[in-house]
Amino acid sequence: MSTTETMTHPAQTTTTLNYHLEVARGGAAVWCPGTVQDKRRPHEHKEVAIENIRDRLAEFSVNVQGFEVGPFETSVKDCETNDEFTGQYYTDVCTHVKKVTGATKIFPVAHIVRRLQFNAVVEAEKDLADDAPVSAPTSNRSVHVDQSYFGAELVRDYKLSTMGLPADEVEKLKGVRWGIINLWRPLNDVTRDPLACCDSRTVEEDDLAAVYADLPESLTKANSGYKFAAGSRSEAWEVKVGNGSHKWYYAAGMTPDECMLIKQYDSSAVVSSRTPHCAISTPFDCGPVRQSIEVRCLCFWEDQ
Fold this sequence. Notes:
By secondary structure, the protein is an alpha+beta fold. It has 6 helices and 14 strands.
């Protein structure tokens, strides 16, 4: 972290977030990742304060607020093709998630590499039809959780059904604590569009809106870069503005030797779950496009 980066990001800034817009007010009930329409979905916009936790990282935990930032070790700095991130990189991801969370089994289920700037892609695809596939993933600007409770079960059941595990082991894993955690890591120094997370404890159940997510077969063959963790269907949470109690945070100037863990789901009732997150714009955005890789991990705690 350079001195310049630390000084130019104050302890708090403001930004406008894209919250869920109710269907009755023109919002969408179906989410179509990988299509041009996804970036055209209407939202409810709200200006919020976001705290920079760069000097307070130790105060945040994936089991308390639902996210944390820390050092990440890997020999895989980047890859020529996105599919090359499996193998050793997945091994490094599993090692890290186990170390931080104490999970005894980790199964990576999908990953997304983002290398393009959101506004540039929107402009380039402005004349395409809604159902046209995007050229590649960009940062996600809507406040969301990757899986609803039902969507998390779809991920778990789909992954376990495709691994060739004995039936008794599958049933055993379904009976222990389990969850879904994303490991997000920048591939270059982040100088724009940082990833922000909301303290899951400040989000009420009524703030969550289930949105069906559909990935048509045509898109799975379009090389759009989108891969669902549960085949071609899922259900996610979009997040409503609620009563204004949401507390938002980001870590300024993240580098490729760091990662952020984000809890999407946890079956335990005594730790965090369902952490809203999204990319944000700040007054300090500058420099090259932010590039990142996100690995979605199915986690099991066989001793719980």
